[in-house]
Model the fold of this input.
Amino acid sequence: MQHDIAVADMQLGDEIEGFYVLSSASLRTTGAGKPYLTGTIADRTGSVDLVVWDYTGELSADSAGTVVKVRGKVSEFKGSRQFAAGRIRPADGNDRYDLDELVPTAPIDRGEAMREVEALIASMEDADYRRAAEAMLAKKREVFARIPAAKSVHHGFVGGLLMHTLSMLRTADFLAGEYAEVINRDLLLCGTLLHDMAKAEEFTFSPLGLATDYSLEGQLLGHPVMGAQAAARLAEELKLPREKSVLLQHMILSHHGEPEFGAAVRPMCAESELLHLIDMIDSRMEIYAETFSELEPGTFSGRVFALEKKIYKPQG
Amino acid sequence: MQHDIAVADMQLGDEIEGFYVLSSASLRTTGAGKPYLTGTIADRTGSVDLVVWDYTGELSADSAGTVVKVRGKVSEFKGSRQFAAGRIRPADGNDRYDLDELVPTAPIDRGEAMREVEALIASMEDADYRRAAEAMLAKKREVFARIPAAKSVHHGFVGGLLMHTLSMLRTADFLAGEYAEVINRDLLLCGTLLHDMAKAEEFTFSPLGLATDYSLEGQLLGHPVMGAQAAARLAEELKLPREKSVLLQHMILSHHGEPEFGAAVRPMCAESELLHLIDMIDSRMEIYAETFSELEPGTFSGRVFALEKKIYKPQG
Amino acid sequence: MQHDIAVADMQLGDEIEGFYVLSSASLRTTGAGKPYLTGTIADRTGSVDLVVWDYTGELSADSAGTVVKVRGKVSEFKGSRQFAAGRIRPADGNDRYDLDELVPTAPIDRGEAMREVEALIASMEDADYRRAAEAMLAKKREVFARIPAAKSVHHGFVGGLLMHTLSMLRTADFLAGEYAEVINRDLLLCGTLLHDMAKAEEFTFSPLGLATDYSLEGQLLGHPVMGAQAAARLAEELKLPREKSVLLQHMILSHHGEPEFGAAVRPMCAESELLHLIDMIDSRMEIYAETFSELEPGTFSGRVFALEKKIYKPQG
Amino acid sequence: MQHDIAVADMQLGDEIEGFYVLSSASLRTTGAGKPYLTGTIADRTGSVDLVVWDYTGELSADSAGTVVKVRGKVSEFKGSRQFAAGRIRPADGNDRYDLDELVPTAPIDRGEAMREVEALIASMEDADYRRAAEAMLAKKREVFARIPAAKSVHHGFVGGLLMHTLSMLRTADFLAGEYAEVINRDLLLCGTLLHDMAKAEEFTFSPLGLATDYSLEGQLLGHPVMGAQAAARLAEELKLPREKSVLLQHMILSHHGEPEFGAAVRPMCAESELLHLIDMIDSRMEIYAETFSELEPGTFSGRVFALEKKIYKPQG
Amino acid sequence: MQHDIAVADMQLGDEIEGFYVLSSASLRTTGAGKPYLTGTIADRTGSVDLVVWDYTGELSADSAGTVVKVRGKVSEFKGSRQFAAGRIRPADGNDRYDLDELVPTAPIDRGEAMREVEALIASMEDADYRRAAEAMLAKKREVFARIPAAKSVHHGFVGGLLMHTLSMLRTADFLAGEYAEVINRDLLLCGTLLHDMAKAEEFTFSPLGLATDYSLEGQLLGHPVMGAQAAARLAEELKLPREKSVLLQHMILSHHGEPEFGAAVRPMCAESELLHLIDMIDSRMEIYAETFSELEPGTFSGRVFALEKKIYKPQG
Amino acid sequence: MQHDIAVADMQLGDEIEGFYVLSSASLRTTGAGKPYLTGTIADRTGSVDLVVWDYTGELSADSAGTVVKVRGKVSEFKGSRQFAAGRIRPADGNDRYDLDELVPTAPIDRGEAMREVEALIASMEDADYRRAAEAMLAKKREVFARIPAAKSVHHGFVGGLLMHTLSMLRTADFLAGEYAEVINRDLLLCGTLLHDMAKAEEFTFSPLGLATDYSLEGQLLGHPVMGAQAAARLAEELKLPREKSVLLQHMILSHHGEPEFGAAVRPMCAESELLHLIDMIDSRMEIYAETFSELEPGTFSGRVFALEKKIYKPQG
Done:
């Protein structure tokens, strides 16, 4: 019997006991009328199908997204690995396990990342945009540092929004220098900080912090409109000049570039045009990184849904 | 010398004195170095090119959208009528002219129309939606009754927004009855009343009340986003339940149907789907009416810009 | 043993005997070489998978769409209900069952609906259009009252075409009043009555009256072209003036709005524009109604194929 | 004074008398109040602007499309040639001029072309399709040999439909041999003969035989639908089997290939697929021929409207 | 026991021994921990699922595309035929089987086809284009005669490229005569010969000669660009005039017609326009032929992936 | 009389003598039969219409793009400035004027820019990519430093290609650091240097160095294909490994992102994806800069052709 083996390392025939996230669960009945539990268990390294025969315990579909303790054997079903558990129970307060091992988390030092964000805000010269950035960060600090930036696609892990935003801020800072003739650095940085903040309200989150679904607002309004509304309120509270309030809202509304990709309006100023392209760069590079992590050098991926194409990982 | 002849009735050779709107104006110099004024004068029946040779008065490009008194003769230039004025001056406080004759105005009794709108609001059973409708009307009453619904396309005349909205409310009322199984009449009526309210801030208006251009907000945010924001504030003030606030905002954001036609999100509930189609009906029927007014029965129009096609006016 | 339980009400473990429609059937052999029958049984409330082990009777794939008598038990297979029948046989002349319970049927009084259609036709003032409507109804009366308006999508039940057409006629009648300036009421009503008539030839129908597939003409010509051709013949028989014949054909050819959605030409007169939008309203509202019937308030549907999006059913 | 100089050969300063087609005409008044006639005169080689100062004769806009006798001088206006006529009058019965020189005509021997069409029809083995082809040709013989195939785009000259159809029939004959495994030669030839026949009713024609505009049916129904209707009637008269009638109609309805290019349905059998591609070949090759006739070898054309691109004429 | 039965003729219950291509293979383990082999075997008439219980031999996923000898019985699994083999082993040098029966091959005499291609090349009058055609054929002769023209879609069999190219050359020859006014026959023939030559490098091929996947160049550059590059080199070697080299490259780059279908540039000369349409004709006719081979007269196919539609095979 | 006034500073009534570029020219005849010259003169600050009455000199349309000496007066025609020259003659070897004042030139120090490009190349660690970059620069050094990057759109001035490429190299350098996990810096830098090199052959250039038109290759092959071909040759000469050659070609072929915008293939590796986005950033920022240079703060531009939208220049 092995303990707390990473899901990615489970081998056919391994007998394992450990703590995992129950990602999904469903109570079923066999043809012979016997109850069983089927679903998925996962940790930060991946997921594997689960089956528990003759199950009569308390777990059900509602338990999805919680931590369980299992004991069983890695078998195979239709060409995929399957974890056949003899025992399973919810984890409780007395159990000791490392949540960071169970939930996928951004590969960054979040404390240091927050300090870098704050330093960039502090460097803004325009008092209006700086106050807006500071106020927004003050309101959202904790959630901003914790939530993923998406359900799956890219940055879909704890700390994803912070990682995505900081990476974009760095590029924004660099490009504001390169194109100082047309770019207002403070507007660009402030818009970059705010552009995805409403993801906190666009999604519903599991107890472990992952985005599980869109919220009512997320579906019927969309995060660009929600974010622009929050910016408008903030601008009002801070008594920002009208043009600055409109520009900040416009940055957020247009950051998806084209209406067919979710922009409420198309970018019409240099800073919103650039924000959209920086967002494209960071999201695409992360998609490549996540796809490459499961790809051999010198081979093509399957069709990547978010890119609508295959991609190639060079040999060297 | 004739007086205040309607522009539509001006004939080649007519000598006319009267009051007209100076729609546009430009100071120029002839090859020989002499100053002259060129532009357009108009009343509610149409417009005609204007030229004033050897002009040295106070009128200029900035005078566009004001009323002038002119005296001159209807001549012809390159196949079009041209009003060659010998005299021209701004109208002043002592002048007597009928503004309703000069500015195109909705062919409805605006007082009666407002009463019909109010009666429909009063008939709403859901107290939340009724209060929202009443509060919005209280805030915007005067501007709602006066402004056009567009720069040109359709309903581009004084009272156009009221006419467009009332016509849609009537159809909404009828269809809410036909599809009572899926339609919440109060949500549909409230969303219909609010859907174009932000046109008041989307445009800038001439002194005579016509839409002359898009405002900064109109260009960078768009009236669906602006209207949804106003609805969100209203819902907050009135302490509407969260779902009702979200649904009202969604109605406004999605009433253009598809992102490529300006919707921030696509309609996702029965009432927003229907609002979009009612808006299509009323705007298209008005475009047909405006195009037909200048078309002989049994003939085709030229290409109608807003429809991207020719249309046909049947003989009988 | 229970009798004739509605499919929607069948519970795991129920033992049931009754009459149902055999929607589909397939004879198979087990790995061990034993014959069995698999397929689906249905009534107007829904459908359930069927399995009959060791089956050697006369039923086969060709029996799809007929009524059978079954006796068996509701079990479960891969998370779905399955009716495991011990006995099954074709219904015959001596059996007593209510066909209306077995086949999905429009939730309207069809006799009354036909009278309302006739009253609307009788109200037409233009003798040409009225005669065309009367003649078409005389030719098609029975099939018009009986067939579905589609295979699935919307109104895919017995009486669907009548229900869809009447609903559109009511809205056409209302809107013809609202837009009397541009709409010829008689042309609109006549075109509405005729617009989907050719569905009778576009589909092939099962013995129980449901649309099972497209006919040769349905695939190679399409119902708009077929309907326009029928209208042209009718107009010839009735010696309608040329323009009226052309307009009626145009209404039918263009009622899908855009070529990419099946219109042979785009709408180019006010009545065809409006007919298209009324068709959109009635088909969309029915799709919402049919989707809502299986959706909890306050939840989103899955992706609705015909709408290419999810929809939301509000809480109240 | 020169006589009947071809328009293409008119040089600045030439004094010319001759017969030309008055393509368009408009009565105007100068700034000084003097009447003049402006318009265009043309022959088969091209067209030139016309002006007649102080004109008080009987010609007007309604005279467009008739033959006139003019006397005047070739001058220049804004960089283009202009024919300034001192005299102009309608041609009458006593005048002698060669109509073939005035109207653009297909560069083929039309009698011989008709015989080739007939020989191809006679070679058809399927009696049904051959009878349909013969009957259609009998009905339309004269108009088929005379009308253009378009207003402008390609084959817009007298005899254009015959030239276009014969050229396609030859290619159809060849390809039916190459792809005998999938192609029914008789269906392909019959469909090719019929595919554009309804152009006779799609356009209105000038007295000289050129297409001047779309007819009411041409706009509201389109020639594919009109042609399919004619084929359906013919099939009925000749008592063709149902499938053959449907296939002939389908060939005509689908010959534009895609709905966005005017097809009422997409091609769904091998013969309609091939008919569409043969039509593409002949129309495109004629567009190249017509564009090349005004292009130097080794140069690019301007943007060709019907192709939405520039084309290149190689040097050798 | 029967021997070497064609896959298309295998019946449920047949006991068969013979040689087949192992198209795909996968080693699996049952729930009970026993190893088995699953995959597909095929010959030129079709393919069937394979299962070998308790398999412990040398075959694995890497054996795909090789010939095996099997012995077993045709059974059924989930409504499809399945070949349950008791024995299976790789074919070796001592085995006797007819490779032509195992691998799908073009239904033409390849030697005769090559002679016809050469005769067409020899008939070219322009020495430059003729030398280019001869040189390319000299370089690629063997591969040109052998490889398929695609992975699946159309002409996906041994000799497919030769069959496709010859068929196009014949049509090119015919059309060059029909449109001699605008078409340079030698450029058209030369471009046709070269247009798909780079398919040899676009794909990787199985030992038996079928295209198994795209190569690195095939994915990252595409065969039009690769073919144009080869043509440029050839033109350089042969010292062709600049315009002729550019035109040949352009023919190859543009033969897919539109960028969205893989053209690097759109056709801009008459010969490239025609080449594209000839390619459409031959590929579409082959798709019809391949689809018809499995379709009953008077029925519709399922959706044909490459055409994005269903097609109809007429009754006669 | 003033001398060599910048075109942007010319005022109505100014009398000026100086050297300008004759951008376009056309010989015409007045209604009265007198010859005159019309066209445009320009310097790096802008352009103005030119007219020379009674002109009989040697200048003609062929003189476009050369330097002339003019003497005349700034007048006005139809609301625009017009330079009415009394004298005009070609500049000759004895004339003294500053070409840099006449031709628009990149606002950079070209020598320093070249050194920065070289330093970035020298910093590449992969010897293959570095040698490719060095070899390409060695071949193209002079033309690379001199030509514009476009006819108009953006960077359409002398030195434009160098300015555009250096700016992109800097951003590439920065982003290669940010995304070191997925980006091969040397491939990215090398691809960036090469991506637009073929613009040297895509255009024809005026004697003064501006792009006047597309070359034959530019139209029929396009610069991505031409550039990839040059890269392939270079890779062959330098004996680069196959994958590196393919990747470099792929970078160039795909740098326009989507086929509809001119990409021969879509980007399929991280470096080509990023190159495309960096190209978007630099071209868009330059379009903003060029549009802003003629726009007041707080106003919208007219529709910018290359962006298909209006843009806004904020107030501050």
User: Anything to note?
Assistant: The mean pLDDT of chain A is 93. The radius of gyration of chain A is 23 Å. The first helix of chain A runs from residue 99 to 102. Strands of chain A lie at 2-3, 15-29, 35-43, 46-53, 66-77, 80-90, 203-205, 211-214, 299-300, 312-313.
